[in-house]
Amino acid sequence: MKKLSQITETFSESVIREMTRICDEAGGYNLSQGFPDFESPKAIQEAAIRAIQAGFNQYPVTFGEPELREAISRKVREYNHIECNPKTDITVTCGATEAMIATLKALINPGDEIIIFEPFYENYGPDSILSGATPRYVTLYGPDWHYSAAELAAAFNEKTKAIIINTPNNPTGKVFSKEELAEIAALCIKWDTYAIADEIYEHILYDGARHVSIASLPGMAERTITINSISKTYSVTGWRVGWAIAAPEITKRIRKVHDFFTVGAPTPLQHAAAEAMTYGPEYYEGLKNHYGEARDFVLGALRQAGFKCELPQGAYYVLTDASDIMARLGITDDTAFSRKLIELTGVATVPGSSFYADKTKGSRQVRFCFCKKWETLKHVAQVLTKLPR
Ligand code: GLN
């Protein structure tokens, strides 16, 4: 038989999704893949049912139903201070995942470089390979996940096509400050580089942290692609409704890629999404408060069990240093440790190495997500006490 594609040979399956499969087989507690195990809001479920019954069951407008694009445009003007024309500046996609790969496919030529902060969300690695971009990594240093301004500046050159900024950040919980984003923006302008902002956790913030969209900074609207989705904000990760916002010339390219990739995101769910985007501030406060309490509770349990970790400022993950427990168990790598943890406690995590290009950097880390109901979190706190002290 002829050999399969060389490109797809160079990356492995998603470790995050694999951990979910292992966890389901073991009947464990899934603190690996970032999705809620509680119900999505009743109102959004009912809106979807109404949309199906109202007959929104055929292909959508390929780049997004007009109602949803208008709702997105209103929302980003208010919350993100981004002006965007729903007719020319928005592409609705199958989740933020498709928005990211469609954006990279729209921008990248062979030989182009993209800058990625490391640790990074797993998908950005294969995304670079699939788009043909050469990634350059800029380290985020724990425990506060700062970057070095000198290292960031040194990563830019004539070949730099884009920088990916994920804020609030998965897996670190870092929320990029306005000053940091201004520094990144200045480098983007200096080197004529696009900014790709993945802002999917924009409503999940703690301790007064504020979300700033890099597209709202002077000179950045025309060179930023802002990516988002309803998955995390409305707890509907299985619906696959996301979008990319960009200036018309960039949007035209993203729309072409999107059309041939997937044609469109599910029509009735786009209508329900448009309705969800009219929820008042109390909805977002409720979400933030639940996750804030969950964060404090889970971090307490993890520290008690011997994991080293700092309070994340946003998103719903904590990347922990597991060295002490690994030493007690005589385990030297993160993947073996994750498997042992499921065996001993039933708790599934994501091995730290899946967030690094240089796998050794994550070999003492594991990521827990805490977007779970109280019942799950309390069970987890209890079973973690089984670990050797
Ligand atoms: N963002 C989620 C995580 O990091 C997973 C998203 C996905 O699996 N598509 O766990």
TrEMBL record:
Every copy of the Aminotransferase class I/classII large domain together lies at: 30-383
Q: Does the keyword Cytoplasm apply?
A: no
Is Metal-binding among this UniProt entry's keywords? Answer: no
This entry's Gene Ontology molecular function terms read: methionine-oxo-acid transaminase activity
For this UniProt record, give its keywords in alphabetical order, as a comma-separated list. Answer: Aminotransferase, Pyridoxal phosphate, Transferase
Pfam families for the chain: Aminotran_1_2
Required co-factor(s) are: pyridoxal 5'-phosphate
Q: Which EC number(s) does UniProt give?
A: 2.6.1.-
CDD domains linked to this entry: AAT_like (cd00609)
Question: What Gene3D superfamilies is this protein classified in?
Answer: Aspartate Aminotransferase, domain 1 (3.90.1150.10), Type I PLP-dependent aspartate aminotransferase-like (Major domain) (3.40.640.10)
InterPro entries, alphabetized: Aminotransferase_I/II_large (IPR004839), Kynurenine-oxoglutarate_AT (IPR051326), NHTrfase_class1_PyrdxlP-BS (IPR004838), PyrdxlP-dep_Trfase (IPR015424), PyrdxlP-dep_Trfase_major (IPR015421), PyrdxlP-dep_Trfase_small (IPR015422)
Q: Provide the family line.
A: Belongs to the class-I pyridoxal-phosphate-dependent aminotransferase family.
This one is known as Aminotransferase
Q: Which organism is it from?
A: Sporomusa silvacetica DSM 10669
Instruction: Output the lineage of the source organism.
Output: Bacteria, Bacillati, Bacillota, Negativicutes, Selenomonadales
Gene encoding this chain? ybdL_3
